[in-house]
Amino acid sequence: MTVNLKRSSPGGAQEPGRRSMLGLLTGAGLAGSGLLGVISNLVFIKPRATYGQPQRFTIGKPDDFPTGSRVALQAQKICVVREGDKLAAVSTVCTHLGCTVGLSETGFACPCHGSRFDHDGVVTGGPAPKPLPWYKVTLAPNGEIEVDKDTEVPSGSYLSL
Amino acid sequence: MSADTRNRSGLAGALRDLPRNVWNSIFRNPVPSNDVERSATTFTNFFLHIHPVKVHPNSLRPIYTMGLGLISFFLFLILVLTGIALMFYYVPATSQAYDRMLDLRGSVAFGTILRNMHRWAAHGMVAVVFLHMCRVFFTGAYKKPREFNWVLGVVLFLVTLLLSFTGYLLPWDQLAFWAITVGAAIAGYAPVVGKEIQFLLMGGNAVGQEALLRFYVLHVAVLPAVMTVLVAVHFWRIRKDGGLSRPPEAEIKPDLEVTRPPAVLDPKRTYGLQGLVRGPLTRVGDLPDNELYSWPHLFRAELFVLVVTVSVILLLSLAFNAPLEEPVNALHPPNPAKAPWYFLGLQEMVSYSAFWGGIGVPGIFVLLLLLTPYLDRNPKGVGKWFAKERLLANTVFLTFVVVNVIFVIIGTFFRGPNWAFVTPW
Ligand code: HEM
Ligand code: FES
Q1: ipTM exceeds 0.90
Q2: Beta carbons of B181 and A46 less than 8 Å apart
Q3: Is the CATH number of domain B54-247+293-419 3.60.40.10?
Q4: Predicted TM-score (pTM) of this structure
Q5: I need a surface site. Which of A61, A123, A134, B231 has the fewest CB within 10 A?
């Protein structure tokens, strides 16, 4: 049996330029295809449409929320706050790890790890790192209140009716 | 060596020889009765050939490995088999999943025992893989040349956790729903890509149908495939790294021409290709060889571990039912919402700081684990439990293990409603 024990240099003896060029192109082609593969898989796995609860929805007329009331809408995971002529929507998703907070005397309380928030959603205790976000509220032409959970507004910004 | 192959003549003869000929076409060797047959059987049987023909007695000492790697593998086998059976009745839809759990309990033959076995083997696998990692550490078995197999092991441990985590959601009960809500939110704390990962994992903004489908696909297809490939490489590396680690004094010293480099091969001789790669394997003279034949020593031990593992899981499954809580109510988290037990240490840390507890500290731990064999370059103390030469390394690792266990115990038993401290008695 004859066995070649010499280490072949990447370019080879003859035509070194051409060989290493081909090797380089092959490598670049494979790496490029690999990268494209990874990117297209990431694009594929990211849903374009989300199902379930929409991010923009209407919640009824202003009259449904008497002044001074705080109404938690469970499916939409918001709390509608009405004070006089002003109305706002505060998230009821705990900023710690996403449990649904309940209404309490002093604001909001999370059952999962005990975070507490005041009426404006500012953290007053527990591990939650951020205040509860407020969402943009507008009045649709037909007089219904529309909430847009994709747009956060600074806390304390009410919609004047 | 080969069995009697003289055939009778004619059709009648062919029929009478049929059983023997079929048998001999499947099994190339008779049941071994001498050393050559023992070697031949190990070499030529597909399921046995991943084993060496002979093993070092140290590898067979029960207290050395405690069989923990093997038990991990057998638990994985149980999980694959019972998991495939469960797939015949499970539907990954939010409207059906929970009812299917009730069906398994009520109307599917052997449904309860299958589900119990799958659940207890899953819990067991997390624990046993962790113990196996501890065994490898405390015996210094990750040292050169086994560094990379340790790294593979760390990845295997992570895949085991991911398999458990994705399976946890599938019953679609309160426990599952809130554990995954909390778990996915922890991923959301990763810097830069956290929110993106959380969104990809859940396939939306909250845990719902998309999340259930994604977790199902990961749990029954993607992760088991990854696990299978990695386990295969893990096993292959054990062989190529020279079998299991053992104390240096137990090493056979091949003072003959076993590892001469290829360059000085004698040009007038003929070598096999394997000999060129690993050095000619001819051993001449009196080599101290106290190794034992795998058949029957190793195979008997493996069979014993298999029988014990399956029996324990069966007995547990007959005695205890896998839990099933109320169906999902996305509006009312249970109080407290707890992750699976092996993540409760994590959740305990998360209750102090979501970033550091959920991402920072665990990330550093995993990185340290991956780098362990490259950081600890002290070559001494391989092949012995708690070797004196490894006092520092073992103390550091033991501290890490004990702290983890304490956090898990606090999270499991000492946390009540609102994650307030409670005493279990
Ligand atoms: C799915 C999980 C795993 C399976 C099925 C598995 C299986 C095995 C088996 C059967 C062995 C033979 C020796 C024994 O039984 O102890 C072994 C050895 C080994 N495992 Fe694992 N293992 C797993 C995870 C891990 C983990 C998490 C680590 C470490 C981070 C690891 C590192 C090693 C090393 C370094 C060896 C060689 C030990 C020696 O030479 O003494 N494995 N594994
Ligand atoms: S999720 Fe609300 S405190 Fe942890």
Answers
A1: no
A2: no
A3: no
A4: 0.87
A5: A61
